[in-house]
Amino acid sequence: MKFVSGEILTEDGFQKGYLGFQRNKIVEVGKGSCPEKPVAKGLIVPTFVNMHTHLGDSFIKYKNIELPRNIEKLVAPPNGLKYKLLKEASENELIEGIEKSIAFMLKSGTSTFCDFREGGLNGICHLKTAIDLWNISSVILSRPEKLDYDKNEIDLLLRNSDGIGLSSIFDWNYSEMMEIAKQTKRKNKIFAIHASERIRENIDSILDLKPDFLVHMVKASESDLICVKENNIPVVLCPRSNAFFGLKPNIDLMEKIGVNILLGTDNAMLSNPSILDEIRYLIKNFKAFEIPEILYKTTYAARKALNLECGILGSNSKADFVVLDDKTLQPLYVSV
């Protein structure tokens, strides 16, 4: 049996202690001194959950293309450069790119990711093929191939994914987006959208879709954020991706209002999919969070938002943890 020791992150904060584990299972949780020399000492936290990825565009980062720092020109469907490159890419190129991103996530302690999967059913299949041989969990939010509502297509997507993740209401005919949202909810699946990323969008129209969570909200007003808080809707921030486009979320205001903030890494062509790197960027460039709070948000709070198992780091639970240096937050030991 191996041991790690230090400060263990629980739902009630950090507690001194140690974990004993073997065969990918925690078999002992103790307080006080570790019975044997630990393989690592530091902050012991559950593996991370990346709440927002677009892994399908991973291959683009290896093309050495200068990407436009304009949201519409780069990522807006259907004519953004990203979509042109996705259409031109081979299946092998797409899958190899996704696998590289998965390897990067696992190495940095991320065990679960929530992907907004472009490309309809083919996009789902590409992602499932890529993750097949990797010890990683995914929450796949699919989307139609075109910006149109087709009941049969949505039924097919929902049978093969965990829900629907759409671009903003600005991109869609609103009545068709509403039909997709309603159909997703009838199947008890997740519905999420990008919101107010480059321009402020109507918060009532957004909330009427009854999303499970929103992504970005960079241009949201104070009253918008209050509405989001009152409706208990989490907001997933991707500050490194925002910075690429010259944007910056008002995290201080979100924190003041009490918005449930979670973290994602967004397009893999722009930012590596490491939640740890996102955390370090956040701590360096924003003053809103203490380290224990942001570690909680990227572990326990993210799992709750996706209705995942939160009974972790206990005796007989799976050994899904990371040991971090308490000063640099560099991973010292990754169990996955």
Fold and architecture overview:
- The chain has helices spanning 71-74, 81-88, 91-107, 120-131, 151-160, 174-186, 203-208, 222-230, 239-244, 251-257, 275-285, 291-305, and strands at 2-10, 13-22, 25-30, 40-46, 48-54, 110-117, 137-142, 163-166, 190-195, 213-216, 235-237, 261-263, 266-267, 321-324, 331-334.
- With 336 residues, the chain is α/β, with parallel strands linked by helices.
- The chain has two domains: 2-45 and 314-334, Urease, subunit C, domain 1, CATH 2.30.40; 46-305, TIM Barrel.
- The strands form two sheets. A nine-stranded parallel sheet has the order 12-11-10-9-8-7-6-5-13. A six-stranded mixed sheet has the order 3-2-1-4-14-15.
- A hairpin with a 2-residue loop joins strand 1 (2-10) and strand 2.
- The chain starts with a strand and ends with a strand.
